Amino acid sequence: MRTLASIIALFVLTLALAGCGGSSGCGSLSSGGGTSSGSCSNSSTTTTSNVATLTVSSSVASIPADGSSTATITVLAKDANNNALSGVAVTLSASAGTLSGAAATTGSNGTITATLSATGAAAGSTITITATSGSVSGNTTVSVVANSVTIGLSTNSPQIPSDGSSPATITAVVRDANNQLKSGVQVRFQATSGGVAPAVTTSGVAAGTTDNNGLAAATLTTASDPTNRTITVTATAGSASATVTVQVVGTQLTITGPTSLVLGAVGTYSVALTNSANTGIATQSVQLTDSLSNP
Q1: pLDDT tens track, the chain, 295 positions
Q2: Which of 130, 145, 160 lies at the terminal end of a domain, its last residue?
Q3: What count of other Cβ atoms lies within 10 Å of the Cβ of residue 66?
Q4: Which domain holds residue 177?
Q5: 21 shares its domain with 106
Q6: Closest Cα partner for 231 from 126, 157, 130?
Q7: Domain tally for the chain?
Q8: Stated pTM of the model
Q9: In terms of domains, do 154 and 243 share one?
C-alpha cells in the first residue's frame, strides 16, 4: 500500500510540473501537494542597456528654408553583435526646425522615422538631429539652403501653323534646391508675340500653378497674326526663369505672270499672300519691284 501511495504521489507531482511548463518557474507545489498558479511571461521588449549604437540618417542633405519642404530622419538601433533591436525607446531632438511623427520605440526592423522641416531656421544654417537611448546617442546634420527653385521649359511642337489651327503647349517643370519636384509654385508665362495663356495640368490645380509632378503649362497661339516668325516664350518662378522658341510657319507670297516680254509689251502679274491653310490674307500691303527698276 505504501508503495502504491508513493507511485500516486509521484504521478501527481509530474502532472503539476507539466502544467507549469516543467521547471520554468510558472508554478510551484503547495505544502498540501497541490499547486499555486503564477504568471508566465515571455516579454520581447528590449531594454536600453542592450543598445550599442544608434545610427541617424537623413533622406536629403539639405532642405530649403521655406517651412514646407521636409527631410525624413531615420534612426537604427543595434546591439553589440550588430543586430537590429526592436522595442527600444528612443528620444529625438533637433537643434532647429521641427521634428514630427516619430514613434516612441523602434519597430520590428530596429528603426524609427521622423519628419524634419526647417520652420524658423535661417538659410545657411545647419540643423543637428540627435537620437538618444539610455547612455547611447547618435546624430546627423541637415543643411538649410535658400528658398530657391530651378525651372525647365519645353514645347510639344517647335512649330505652329500660321493659320492658328494648332497651338503649342508650353510646359514648365519646377524643382527645389534638392532637385525634388515642387508643387504649388506660381509660374508666369510671357511671349514676344502671339498669345500665351496658363493652362490646367491637373484637375483641382489652378492654371499656372505647379501640380504634384512639379508641372505648370500654358497654351501658345498665333493670336490671329499669320506672319512667319520666331516666338520666344519665357517662364518665371521666383528668381528662376527659362525660355523656349516656337516658329510660326506656312505663310507664303506667290507671284504668277509671264516669264518673258517682247520689248514694249505689257505683262500682268498676280500676287497671292496665303497662310498655312492656303487661305488668302487680306488687307496686307504688297510692294512690287523688278531688277531693272521699270515703272
Answers
A1: 455 445 545 444 444 444 444 433 333 333 333 333 333 333 345 566 799 999 999 999 998 887 778 999 999 999 999 999 999 999 999 999 999 998 889 999 999 999 999 999 998 999 999 999 999 999 999 999 887 789 999 999 999 999 999 999 999 999 987 788 999 999 999 999 999 999 999 989 999 999 999 999 999 999 999 999 999 999 999 889 999 999 999 999 999 988 888 888 888 888 999 999 999 999 888 887 877 766 6
A2: 145
A3: 19
A4: 150-249
A5: no
A6: 157
A7: 3
A8: 0.58
A9: yes
